[in-house]
Amino acid sequence: MTEEKKRELFADLQQCGMSVAEMSVLAVLLMAPLEPAEVADVVKGELQGDALEQPLESYAQAVKSCLKKKWIRKSTKQEYKKQAALRDHETIPFVDEGIIASPGRIDLTPEGYHLFRKAAKRRYPRYGMRCNSPSFLLEIYSDSEADCREYAKSLQEPYSIYPFDDGTGEMDGSGGTVYGLFKDASEPLPIGPWRFNRFEVVPKGFRIILRYTPAPAPLA
Fold first, then answer.
1. What is the mean predicted confidence (pLDDT) over 80-94?
2. Residue 118 to residue 186: CA distance in whole angstroms
3. pTM of the entire structure?
4. Sequence ranges of the domains in the chain
5. What φ, ψ does residue 208 adopt, rounded to 5°?
6. First to last CA, the chain
7. What was the pLDDT predicted at 98?
8. Using N-to-C axis directions, what is the helix angle for 20-31 and 56-68, rounded to 10°?
9. Where are the beta strands (DSSP E) in 45-198?
10. How confident is the model at residue 220 (pLDDT cuts 50, 70, 90)?
């Protein structure tokens, strides 16, 4: 991250009344809700070596302040059922399904998420990917054509191999992986509504389709 980008990010955070540590806590919980006792340690691990890494105590304090500000909360059985139903019945493309927050785990509140998006939009652009394993396709989504192109470009190096989940894996993580060799990519296609994650539907955007051909597993 350049110094100019840092200054812009810090200005956005200050405007939203959010610290760097609070932003990091929200970002990690957005990816995966966590047990209360492990949040600070996991955030520290995820940010290790990052330009914005903070001391562990800062993350511990950020968890407390985010709870107090009602940006995060313990998930309930009702919320768990709601997220599961959303995943099962959504009719528009769902890009980042994420992990459903089991009861008792810490997750963002809708208010916390939308403030996070406003504060951290420069660090975390809206883009994501859907994997179509049977057809060896990756679908790249973004609300910005430039971000869509940039993210897609990072996945289409010549001779790059991508691991697709074929749905036959075991609970221990073994098996269930087939491999694809990058073939070609579409141009960005304007699209209508798509769900970025469990909190947000984006009214329009762009999609790029990356096509792969079946390939042998790469050498270890």
1. 91
2. 30
3. 0.86
4. 3-74+107-120, 127-215
5. -120, 135
6. 32
7. 75
8. 80
9. 72-74, 106-108, 127-132, 137-142, 161-165, 177-185, 189-191, 194-197
10. low
| DSSP label at residue 110 | H
> Which residues are within 8 A (CB) of 194 and not within 5 positions of it... i.e. 6 or more apart?
92, 93, 94, 95, 141, 201, 202, 205, 207
CATH class of 3-74+107-120: mainly alpha
Per-residue pLDDT averaged across 51-78, rounded?
97
pLDDT digits (tens, 9 = 90+) for 104-124: 999 999 999 999 999 999 899
Q: Give the pLDDT of residue 3.
A: 87
Q: Is 150 helix (H, G, I), strand (E, B) or coil?
A: helix
Burial classification of residue 78, based on how many CB atoms lie within 10 Å of its CB (0-12 exposed, 13-18 middle, 19 or more buried) = exposed
The per-residue pLDDT for 25 is 98
Nearest of 135, 185, 136, 134 to residue 157 by alpha carbon: 185
Cβ atoms of residues 66 and 25 within 8 Å: yes
Residue 194 bridge partners (DSSP) = 202
